[in-house]
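Re: duplicated header lines in exported structure tokens

Our pipeline writes sequence and tokens for each protein into one text file. With two proteins the header for the second block appears twice in some exports. Here is an export where it did not happen, for reference. First protein block:
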Amino acid sequence: MHDIRAIRENPAAFDAGLARRGLAAQSSEVLALDQARRAAISQAEAAKAAQNAASKQVGAAKARGDEAEFERLRALVAEKKAEMAALEEDARTGDAKLTAILETLPNLPLDEVPDGADEAGNVETHRWGTPRVFDFTPVEHYEIKGIAQDMDFATAAKLSGARFVVLRGAVARVHRALAQFMLDLHVEEHGLREVNSPVLVRDEAMYGTGQLPKFAEDSYRTTNGWWLIPTSEVTLTNFAAGDILDGATLPLRFCAHTL
């Protein structure tokens, strides 16, 4: 999510970056929401200060028998308390609106990224090896005769709906073997630490890896608010979320097989 401070400091650069991605300027709307939110916070703090000051004077007015002043101060305390509550609600509403905009705007491109309207604008910067030329027409893996018989989409659709598959026989064994090969390679040869992590996570974890809000409609969520992770990248990345790490413990290198 974009840092509001960076937008405050250089709104023109922010809009220029969005323009390079083919988007309209957003800084005016963002900064207006930010200003309204900050004003509500400031006014709420002023109301609280006035409430506190009046509260201190209530006892003194009562002690000297000044009933008129006592009642005036009591009414002022109640008034400032209600004013503060309303302003705090305005600030919360403004913060929610500001966050909703900032978290949906795409990242700004780096200066060295070439401009382009579509993939035709891509620039090849490096090539390794030679693309293979087939003497036959390639097909998708699930269309290969020896594999297709053990990939059961019909049963999966009956069990779970679209976008699922049941693997059987040799294909299921190859799937398991590939996962084991990947884990063994990274642990034994590259020094990573194997992890078996939860497959259900909170909102914060999905936001932390960019799954939300962009991919919310393509993700699965339980009725109590947990999200089913797309890959273990979500959990592994969030291991360090919100923590200050001791430099001596770095780097932290993990690997996992997403079940």
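Second protein block, exported in the same file:
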Amino acid sequence: MLQPLIDIDISQLITEDDESVDNFLTEKQERLLTEPLYSCWKPHNNRSFLVAANVGVFNSIYLSAIVPDVFLSMDVEIPDDWWEKEKRSYFNWEFGKPPNLVIEIVSNKVGEENTKKITRYAQMGVTYYVIFDPYKKLSDKILTFYVLPFGRSTPTNQTFFPEIGLGLIIWEGEFENTVSKSWLRWCNEQGQIIPSGIEKAEIQSQRADEEKRRADEEKQRTDEEKRRADEEKQRADEEKQRAERLAAKLRELGIDTSYL
């Protein structure tokens, strides 16, 4: 295990305040953006990754944390001693890089998602920034994407992130008994959503049921073919027995059956 070249004193940094207050939408949406990746996503070349919700991200010991609703960082892992204070949050100097992508979920107009937060994420080196605004509090767009090259923010229509191997789309459906027309979901390059663990289990169950149905139909077809074959054999046997009885009677009458 690599050892730090210097020890950084973070004792004065606030890594958690236990005062986070979220609404039902944000709480469920955050889980929908984290759990599926751990349950069902296989990055190219088995790259490691870390996706988290409401975890503080620090890029300087002189600045307080910024707390994204969701962030994704590639090629990193949670350390074994993750419960220690110096490992408990996302410190850029510990992981060696900032998150690749940050998502903010808008529920009011006071979160500064399209002003102050863009600047901070750009300054710390985040590559992609996504604002999910399901209630259209900030603009008439539900989803806004930014690339943040060299500390600057540039709006983009890019919805797939090739460096990561994931995209984001709006999805209508039911998640945890809650129906919405505007869930934000991860997807692959073809636009297919990354399922949650429950969805994966349901898909596997449906496939198993379908395979069983097909197997039952095939067995039924095979049984039917065997029944028909048995009936045909029985008819052939009965016909042979009738012919043999007829031949026997004709021989009793002195008729040579070899010419029949």
